[in-house]
Task: inverse folding
């Protein structure tokens, strides 16, 4: 009695939800523009995905020099990455360094979940409510919740009866987990599974991997960053925005020549031995539109799997049978080699599905696998999952979940019709999480803060994406993806990993994204109504 704190009610010019790289930059930019800003994050720390994904082996698959803020030469000069692909702890340290360097912490309310956000048409302001009952009212709301932040917990019969420890890769405990002498089961072989499996295999007595769909895994060949490589990558920074504008399916993709199988194999062999990430960004421009080119890269990787994995049945189970890149290709270290270890066993759920989980085992059709710890590397309710957890109500009290029931709709991937003054960096319908999401965030946050600056300087009270402009844009987004191989597999890209979710590939992968955003701004924010 009497211990319940009195709810706080505050006002600001802008609220920013999410303190990952997108949210942190939005806080900084808006404050620099003279706005009062309040930030929120459910975590006790900044860093977003790099705070939550603390599982052993977690690391980025984009070179760290490029996966860091580009906008500040000072910050770039003050931070030295130790490895080509930094691990999650180092990226989290970098996020903390930036938060301190920019003095962002005083703006952020940590350990705080936003439960509701409601737009008031009379005042043109948003009110957000935390799950503790505090409210903040602000003219602008920026939701930077991340595309891969709502963990997917599989509904496997009996999982609640398991008496051992269950760990999701994206909710890993802060304290190290010691697997020594334990029997561990891992469900899931996407990026997280591919990274955590070799690490667990180092110490576990027995590791059983339950695989529904194999991943295309490329060897990271991670290494300490020497001055020469650092210099080389830094020189690439000025061209990164051009790469975003070039698009994942560049203009020349459909007319690009089909190189011979020999030429392709020669190139892939070189990439395989030096830097697997180049398969993702380098390679041929038509790999996601030309089946022949795609089949060749897939054949090459399957050949490597068969060469590496000694047990032929396991090797075949590890060979993907869908288009390369249709599920996000993963970077690994000793991933395929791990299956040659005597303490590692693969259960192919395609031929031997899980029936149930009991108190101490995962029971597949062919038999029971006793385990002490169950690791769920089962991914996320991607792209829309985190937004769907907030009760967001726009014009006429319409809920975002209802507006997006058939799939998300945005204009340029930054705003959505019916939700004025609400901005969504890297939302679906934009470049979103395709490519370098940190860079995409940087672009979107700058564009959003520019439109806010424009509104502030011209006395605009309400900015809203037009439904027609949004429809036209989403048709363009769909057209760019329609003849590609991206939609040909059941992946989180299309929402197929979540039962009942509307299927759709909602990323802009064509050329000219930045040019289009610039054009919209240059023409008085064409496609937005500014009132
Ligand atoms: P992903 O890539 O979605 O991988 C999740 C894995 O978990 C994938 O192999 C799934 O198989 C598997 N999964 C999910 N639910 C189940 C159930 N119920 N039973 C068996 N297997 C299941 O998530 P990650 O965390 O690895 O990576 C997400 C992104 O983060 C990654 O692409 C990078 O961008 C960073 P499925 O393929 O659905 O058959």
Result:
């Amino acid at each position: 009695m009497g211990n319940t704190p009195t709810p706080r009610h505050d006002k600001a010019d802008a609220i920013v939800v999410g303190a990952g790289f997108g949210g942190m930059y939005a806080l900084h930019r808006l404050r620099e523009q003279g706005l009062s800003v309040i930030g929120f994050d459910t975590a006790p720390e900044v860093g977003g995905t790099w705070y939550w994904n603390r599982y052993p082996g977690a690391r980025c698959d984009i070179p760290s020099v490029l996966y860091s803020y580009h906008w500040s030469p000072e910050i770039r000069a003050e931070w030295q990455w130790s490895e080509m692909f930094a691990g999650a702890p180092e990226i989290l340290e970098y996020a903390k360094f930036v938060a301190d360097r920019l003095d962002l912490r005083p703006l952020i309310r940590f350990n705080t979940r936003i439960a509701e956000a409601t737009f008031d048409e009379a005042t043109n302001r948003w009110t957000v409510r935390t799950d503790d009952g505090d409210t903040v009212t602000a003219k602008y709301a920026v939701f930077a919740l991340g595309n891969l932040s709502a963990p997917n917990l599989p509904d496997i019969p009996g999982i609640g009866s398991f008496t051992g420890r269950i760990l999701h890769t994206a909710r890993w405990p802060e304290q190290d987990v010691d697997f020594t002498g334990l029997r561990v089961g891992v469900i899931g072989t996407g990026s997280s599974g591919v990274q955590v499996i070799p690490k667990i295999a180092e110490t576990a007595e027995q590791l059983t991997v339950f695989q529904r769909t194999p991943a295309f895994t490329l060897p990271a060949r991670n290494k300490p960053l020497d001055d020469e490589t650092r210099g080389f990558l830094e020189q690439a920074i000025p061209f990164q925005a051009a790469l975003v504008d070039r698009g994942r399916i560049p203009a020349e993709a459909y007319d690009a020549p089909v190189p011979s199988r020999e030429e392709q194999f020669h190139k892939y062999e070189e990439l395989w031995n030096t830097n697997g990430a180049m398969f993702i960004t380098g390679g041929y421009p038509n790999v996601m539109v030309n089946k022949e080119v795609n089949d060749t890269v897939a054949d090459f990787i399957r050949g490597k799997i068969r060469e590496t994995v000694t047990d032929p049945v396991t090797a075949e189970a590890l060979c993907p049978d869908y288009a390369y890149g249709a599920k996000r290709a993963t970077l690994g270290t000793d991933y395929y080699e791990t299956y040659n270890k005597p303490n590692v066993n693969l259960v192919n759920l395609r031929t031997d599905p899980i029936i149930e989980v009991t108190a101490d085992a995962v029971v597949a059709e062919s038999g029971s696998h006793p385990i002490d710890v169950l690791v769920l590397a089962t991914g996320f309710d991607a792209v829309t999952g985190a937004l769907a957890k907030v009760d967001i109500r726009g014009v006429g009290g319409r809920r975002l979940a209802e507006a997006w029931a058939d799939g998300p709709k945005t204009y340029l991937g930054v705003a959505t019709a019916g939700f004025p003054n609400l901005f969504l960096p890297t939302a679906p319908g934009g470049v979103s999480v395709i490519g370098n999401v940190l860079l995409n965030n940087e672009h979107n946050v700058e564009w959003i803060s520019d439109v806010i600056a424009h509104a502030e300087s011209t006395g605009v009270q309400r900015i809203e994406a037009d439904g027609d402009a949004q429809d036209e844009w989403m048709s363009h987004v769909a057209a760019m993806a329609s003849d590609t191989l991206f939609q040909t597999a059941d992946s989180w890209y299309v929402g197929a990993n979540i039962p009942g979710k509307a299927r759709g590939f909602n990323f802009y992968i064509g050329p000219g994204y930045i040019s289009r955003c610039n054009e919209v701004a240059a023409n008085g924010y064409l496609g937005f109504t500014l009132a």
